[in-house]
Amino acid sequence: MRIRIRRKRQKIQKFFLFTSTVYLCFLLFAAVGSSYLAPHSPTTQNLNQRLLPPFTEGKILGTDDLGRDIWSRIVYGTRSLLLIGTVSVGIALAGGLVMGILAGAIGGIVDSFIMLLMDGILSFPTVLLAITVVSVLGYGLVQVTVALGIVFIPVFARLVRAETISRLTEGYVESSRALGTPFPKILLRHVLPNMMPDLIAQSTVTFALVVVIEASLSFLGLGTQPPEPSWGLMLKESRNFLYQAPWMAIFPGLALAATVFSFNYLGDYLSEQLNPQRW
Amino acid sequence: MKPMKIILVIGLLFVFIPTLSFSRGAKEEKPIRIALSGNPDTLDPQKTAGTLTFQVTKSIYDTLIEPDEKGVLVPALAERWDFQDDGKKILFHLRKGVTFHDGTPLTSKDVASTLARIKDKNTGSPHGAEFSPIERIETPDSSTVILYLSSPSAPLLATLASGWSAILPAHLIETGHDFGSKPVGSGPFKLKSWVRDNQILLEKNPSYWMPGKPKVGGVEFRIITERSIQVQGLLSGQLDVIDMYDAIDLPLLQKNPNVKVEKILTSLVMVLAMNTARPPLSDLRVRQAINFAIKKQEILDVAYGGGVPVGTFMDASDPYYVDFTSLYPYNPEKAKTLLQEAGVGTDRTLEMVLPQNFEPHVRAGQIYQEMLQKVGLSVKIRLVDWSTWISDVYRKANYDLTVIGHTGKLDPDSRLANYGTDKTYVRWVHPEAASLINKARGIMNPNERKAIYQRVLEIMAKEVPFVYVGTSYRYLGTRKTLEGFRIQPKLDAYDFRHVEVR
Fold first, then answer.
1. Long-range contacts of range A40-44, CB-CB < 8 Å, 24 or more positions apart?
2. pLDDT for B365
3. Chain B neighbors of A235, CB-CB under 8 A
4. Over the stretch A194-216, which tens digit does the pLDDT of each residue have?
5. Nearest CB to B369: which of A47, A227, A239?
6. Is the N or C terminus of chain A more exposed, i.e. has fewer CB atoms within 10 Å?
7. Domains present along chain B, CATH in parentheses
8. pTM for the complete prediction?
């Protein structure tokens, strides 16, 4: 009985894993090959074809209040989504690595200072902090990317610091040090590779968070500027048409939910698989 | 069996009669619930220019005179008024027996201290300048007020009929009372409670000077920013009145048998404003080209829920309105030629700043962008929040293009004041227009005044510091049972005095 349940669960897990991966691959493909997937321009208006329901006049997912093709907007929306996601996770990862290794390897007052700073950043609600950074830097795609990068530095910094400290006390590191290996080389050869699995898992989960916050910021009008397509902006524009054209909200909302779910699921799976000694 | 039936019927009657009469009584006491699209910054009529404030304070305070449904000025706190000395002296005869909410009777002293309060720089009234013609105020007896003016002023009466001239009790002005959160007036309703960003509750003033008014027990302003939630509230019967600026949910409302929708022409002038101090918009040809590139009716229909195009800086229903719509019809070819002549290509990107909390303006902005791109202008959109728009665009003119609606005014002078000088946000300088606007202010003869404004509007129509798109409609949704609800023309304030529930 128990075995059967476990098998069933494994099957479900495999199914989710498969669909998540396929969906994310599809997103990547959509971002690279937008012009092949999208039959129309994402910004061209057609005021005679406003609020068309799905599957009419060649518009698979219908049109929005300015007669723009929703499917094309969703497809082109993946570009800014993946770009913002990748770059800001990159910033957070790089910043977190530098801060974390400095804190973990040097220790003492440097450690206290860096961690105080990181805890300071962490103590703000993420969205609020992102809004603050954006209002200082100004509205727009680049600013949002940088803001989200900064906001997520502490998450990585904490992880890296903890890993650095624990690795540096391991036996093989100590013996390597005893053999006279220079410290930077130890970090590069022993410490960094060992924290890779955690970093990959963390990056994937962070990616999902970044996607949600970017959508929230665009929804608030702080992120992607119209008429450029962004899922958050599409949701914002759909608000007033909820009764007349629910498809304006449903499709970008679904795409967003599926993206977040896939990244989260993949992140969880990766951290489970890449880190066997933990479980 | 028969006695049983009789007992049953009598029993049922006993149950029903009280409920019937109870529901009747409750109907009159129940407040009218109306959606307000935002929280008023203050309830002090002399410390703000916000329409939201005046929409509420109209029910709390009274003015000396007020506009009726057609915009004609009629008596309110003043029973009658006379002009003397070629319009340099105005006599107001006050209504007798009017009391404030705290029980003190209204006298000429209250009027004098209120006007002094508005003129006082420390009050910081944004409308203070409109009262500058008043040189001296005299109160010969408790029901007469005499205003001595430095020069005849045609717009002054309209100013005194506007919400910011509401009369406050003198004894509270002296003590520095906080009218912003504890308003005391002589109006048809008094403030019961105000939960910020949630609701404002007013209750009936039983000793209001209009006999038999108000007819309802109170007014409840529910602060609901989302239009779709307002619509749902009206449909489900949780709201009695909603006031919408677009027609998106119209089909939904029209389907409901308990709701009626009235279409009213607003006094707004929707514009695409251009910063004429910045090249290439300083070039008249470029501004003309932009005017030729815009399909105005389409903007009105798609972004603003329908409307009437105007060709100049005056709303379509104003008595001073003159039709100049034929000057710049849609003509993309002409637009391209003019741009070529002016030497403007796609290399110069114009920045269009949009107030993002006004969905219709954002929608309009995107349509403008596409229309302008079609004639070869490149436009980039930047969304800003409302306070940034006020400080950056409206005060500092830090923009190329922007989209906004200009609200109505009872007197044309309030709309046109300062145009032609560099004090407005379009930075359009035209000495002739400016001097004409100044001259018209002192002319009391309506026909003479009209002729001058006609010339001003013609200059503005030809020089196009704006694309004048048109006057939009507003859609007033009410429950079918509600009658007598009014919106003051031009001022947009809500008047609940004549409301009754059938």
1. A40/A68, A40/A69, A40/A72, A41/A72, A42/A68, A42/A69, A42/A72, A42/A73, A42/A75, A42/A76, A42/A77, A42/A228, A42/A229, A43/A68, A43/A227, A43/A228, A43/A229, A43/B370, A44/A68, A44/B370
2. 95
3. none
4. 888 889 989 999 999 999 998 88
5. A227
6. N
7. 2-60+187-240+481-501 (3.40.190.10), 65-174 (3.90.76.10), 269-472 (3.10.105.10)
8. 0.81
